[in-house]
From TrEMBL:
<keyword id="KW-0694">RNA-binding</keyword>
<dbReference type="InterPro" id="IPR047867">
    <property type="entry name" value="Ribosomal_uL22_bac/org-type"/>
</dbReference>
<dbReference type="InterPro" id="IPR036394">
    <property type="entry name" value="Ribosomal_uL22_sf"/>
</dbReference>
<dbReference type="GO" id="GO:0006412">
    <property type="term" value="P:translation"/>
</dbReference>
<dbReference type="GO" id="GO:0003735">
    <property type="term" value="F:structural constituent of ribosome"/>
</dbReference>
<comment type="function">
    <text>This protein binds specifically to 23S rRNA; its binding is stimulated by other ribosomal proteins, e.g., L4, L17, and L20. It is important during the early stages of 50S assembly. It makes multiple contacts with different domains of the 23S rRNA in the assembled 50S subunit and ribosome.</text>
</comment>
<dbReference type="InterPro" id="IPR001063">
    <property type="entry name" value="Ribosomal_uL22"/>
</dbReference>
<dbReference type="GO" id="GO:0022625">
    <property type="term" value="C:cytosolic large ribosomal subunit"/>
</dbReference>
<comment type="similarity">
    <text>Belongs to the universal ribosomal protein uL22 family.</text>
</comment>
<keyword id="KW-0699">rRNA-binding</keyword>
<comment type="function">
    <text>The globular domain of the protein is located near the polypeptide exit tunnel on the outside of the subunit, while an extended beta-hairpin is found that lines the wall of the exit tunnel in the center of the 70S ribosome.</text>
</comment>
<comment type="subunit">
    <text>Part of the 50S ribosomal subunit.</text>
</comment>
<dbReference type="GO" id="GO:0019843">
    <property type="term" value="F:rRNA binding"/>
</dbReference>
<keyword id="KW-0687">Ribonucleoprotein</keyword>
<dbReference type="Pfam" id="PF00237">
    <property type="entry name" value="Ribosomal_L22"/>
</dbReference>
<keyword id="KW-0689">Ribosomal protein</keyword>
<protein>
    <recommendedName>
        <fullName>Large ribosomal subunit protein uL22</fullName>
    </recommendedName>
</protein>
Amino acid sequence: MKALLKNVRISPKKLSVIAKLVRGKPVDKALLMLEYAPKKGAKFLHKVIKSAAANAENNQKLEAKNLKVAELVVNKGFILKRGMPGTRGRWKRIWKRASNIWVTLTPQA
């Protein structure tokens, strides 16, 4: 039971902080934690874990309450290169990073 979410406009560094909280947890507990987490990236992780649970129910006929987050990987996505005026007429480069999220769910033992 896998799901992925590509090109999420939040940096992988910020997203991986929240991913550490739910890695290895049961799906229902992970979704509850993410629902009330005060971080922007929590809604993206909530979305992809919910999608993976729906994939498990529809494709493999497994119940979401019996699953756990086995693997949660946050990788680099694309980078938008932008600029901002700096001192002495220079142009400062700004990188707006994106992330790719991979989730794998397994049945609890």
